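Protein 1 of 2
SEQ + STRUCT:
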Amino acid sequence: MSRTTQNAAPTRHIELGLRQNLAQFVLLVTVNALVGGMLGQERTVVPLLGERVFGLRGYTAGLTFILVFGLAKAATNYFAGTWSDRFGRKPVLVVGWLVAVPVPLLLIWAPSWAWVVAANVLLGISQGLTWSTTVIMKIDLVGPARRGLAMGLNEAAGYGAVAATALATGYLADTYGLRPAPFLLGIAFAALGLGLSTLAVRETREHARLEAAGHVARADGKHDHLHSDLSNGEVFLQTSFKEPALSAASQAGLVNNLNDGLAWGLFPILFSAAGLSVAKIGVLAALYPAVWGVGQLFTGALSDRVGRKWLIASGMWLQALALGVIATVDSFAAWAVAAVLLGAGTAMVYPTLLASIGDVAHPAWRARSVGIYRLWRDGGFAAGALLAGIVADALGVRAAVWTVAALTAASGLVVAARMYETHHRPGSVEPKGAVDG
């Protein structure tokens, strides 16, 4: 099937599909790995900086860097989707990398905790622009049939890099100190990410327009109310509250990152209090996102075969179990097993939620819906930092872990009760052809 749009731009052949867009897809996977590396530089070291360098004693105060990161990233996610539709995906990606450049420098030179907080505002803005845009661009390229696989590869690259960088920074900090060595990696990641995004990444907005032109509604009528011309406010309401699958995914994403905020901010403190070395803390900080990252290579594709709903619900329940184990045990080996379980549960959930948003949202406003979902999901970082800090200050770190475990289990119940199976495709061929791009 061939479709064209009329404008003055030169014609470029555009097709949907992973194989047809493999070079750009691999490039975007590489870029997202660098995005993940920018986040991973903080996972082991920054909580220890707060405790050992800046003398922070209250858990709530120590988690302020995650709170501001979550708020900045959540808000930016929303605008990333809107701006990607208005200005194109590539300009938003490049701006995101420009914002990332000062982050490792601020962490290296920070004379006070306020500098670390400021760096995390910039990191949140950068992550919201870069990660959101790479997600949108991959969804644009592959079309509907391989969406779960695409999201699995995207998130595996990002969180695999989080894990590798958390491990590397742990060893660098153990050998050379908490600063500056661990953050030199961030300088390299920012330079590479900006260069690749500026010089090699190509715009994908026309791929979304091609899919929209050939969009076929579900035969069961579930999406009849989701027209192509929804306003920004209508897209927000559908994604957040009204549409059962979209809203169930949004709350699950929020709770998932709520427990990730807990893991990021309090697990290194919990492990340090048990007498573990910085190197061992780095191993545990890396193990959870490593399993999460590698697991998504399989779970994203699995959701294309078995569906989204029960993979998401089961993943939330497995995360809750893992958090309960972490709150109970007190040894490196037991924590390592729990970190593996937590990573596996997150791998079941993370790419599948994104794929479900792509399943339901119309291509004409899908970028905005992804941005709104990611607003809620990454708002979980802020909610997790605030909740975990308050509970930990009042009742201790383990009580905070138990609280988040209970919320995670409840979120799985919401998915089981409210979400329908979203991976339902009509028997049609993916649209492909030539358009003016």
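Protein 2 of 2
SEQ + STRUCT:
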Amino acid sequence: MPCYRCGARQTDPVRGASPWKRGVRRETQVLICPDCQRLHDLDLEACGTCGSTSLICRLGEVECRACGSVRQARADAFVGSDAMAGSGAPPGLSAEVEAALNRVLGRA
């Protein structure tokens, strides 16, 4: 998954903690590269309980890594093409994934 702001791809990590951060934007989990983390306006969602932006989104729930608060993801955030248009996915990503699957599965 690339950085949602600049599209940089995460490379194989060296030993230790990854410098990349996770966040939630428009009810979708995103990655933030180390360079983009320096920006002040990341446009990430914040926890309604403690205000932290250390959120993860999985299986229709958004969980705060700071305080453990869990809430249901808002279904209205997924309606319409605007939600996907701002996802930051670089063009051609689906074709790139399909090609990788074809290589791994031995498809012609």
